[in-house]
Amino acid sequence: MSSLALAARDTTTMLRRNLLHARRYPSLTLNLLLTPVMLLLLFVYIFGDVMSAGIGGGNRSDYIAYIVPGILMMTIGSTVIGAAVSVSTDMAEGIIARFRTMAIYRGSVIIGHVVGSVLQILASLVVVGAVAAAIGFRSVDTTALEWLAAFGLVTLFALALTWIAVGMGMASPNAEAAANSAQPLILLPLISSAFIPADTMPGWFRPIAEYQPFTPVIETLRGLLLGTEIGHNGWLAVGWSLALAVLGYLWSKSLFRRDPAAR
């Protein structure tokens, strides 16, 4: 077999391992998925009418349309914590150190974690999307090309955050520390345009919402699904996603190659 075929085989094996772990221990994924679902239901049914008036909408259905893209991005941010915990657990238990001594493609270990996490994220997005559709979310005249662009955007952003989460997991001494270090990935959507428009925030707080990765991604997804204006947010969303993916990849790669005794 060629080196490429061997690398693909080893990566597939590691991917299968991570998917089996996720299937055997679903509680972590379910707990992380519960946060965006509960926030969606809370903001729609408790605050929906008030929030809809705040964004200039007429009723609760207007706010459902507004909030769902942000909740989908929050789903990505919460689900990738599972990748950080899983990687940190493997590091602490010594399985990654053992994989280093085996005659396998070295990158297959972390690539398996990344691909497995992205697949879990996409499955979580389907679940949250189904809940959103059940309570009244509808896209507005979205074309097949726009749906494809939306899928590509969420996949790219999921990949970027997963690489960051993998780096956090490898840098953390244990699973609890990994989960804590990844908490900003849940908190950042809360201070973005996910729940209210950024231009309605106080002047001192508005730059925090505008100059962070979640806001342009949310606005781009909102534009693709609802037909609102995207403007420069599309380029910013792709730029943030690529930058985070490269940063997370280089960080994870350097940590993986580091001497385990120096960890």
UniProtKB/TrEMBL annotation:
Residues in the signal sequence: none
Topology of this chain in the membrane: Multi-pass membrane protein
Keyword DNA-binding belongs to the record: no
Keywords: Antibiotic resistance, Cell membrane, Membrane, Transmembrane, Transmembrane helix, Transport
Protein name, entry field: Transport permease protein
Stored Pfam families: ABC2_membrane (PF01061)
Subcellular location(s) per record: Cell membrane; Membrane
Similarity-based family: Belongs to the ABC-2 integral membrane protein family.
InterPro entries with a match to the protein in the record: ABC2_TM (IPR013525), ABC2_TM_bact-type (IPR047817), ABC_2_transport (IPR000412), Nod_factor_ABC_transporter (IPR051784)
Domain ABC transmembrane type-2 positions: 27-259
TM stretches of this protein: 25-48, 63-88, 109-135, 147-166, 178-196, 234-251
